[in-house]
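Predict the structure of Organic hydroperoxide resistance transcriptional regulator.
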Amino acid sequence: MTEHDAATAPASADAREEDLLLERQLCFALSVASRTIVGAYRPVLEDLGVTHPQYLVLLALWEQSPRTVRDLSDTLLMEPATLSPMLKRLETAGLLSRNRAPGNDRALAVELTAKGRALRARALDVPGTMMQRLGLERAEVEELNRSMRRLIDAAQSGEQGAPAGPGTAAGA
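Done. Here is the predicted structure for Organic hydroperoxide resistance transcriptional regulator.
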């Protein structure tokens, strides 16, 4: 029996009962991890004057600016309606500007201001500070990121497929 066969084989009745334990739920572990990690970022990002979601927007813009709202939405996996109020707050803070995209009056282009670009220099310490706060080495962070990306990809492709049936992985 291969590792894949063992992972997809129907589970015993006892294993299926244990699958319902809260501690075995992937959704619970991810939810708690997400809240906890974002909470750990809070004091670090307060020094920059931004929230965690705003930090994510800035990260995307530090990679490429200008970008359309649609491109930011796709990159951050956020709905434009969720993103728009955040962009407005960042604009009010003087970190970015929003203008009609050249050649496409229907698209809104988001661009960092000089203040937004300058904030990047201060943000360079955030990843190292967070690794230290969480007691993680760079290689561990990279592996966690790879695992999370595989999980995100699997969940997104699963949304398009049939629902999982009995005997699938525990807590998934």
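The beta strands are 67-68, 96-101, 104-112.
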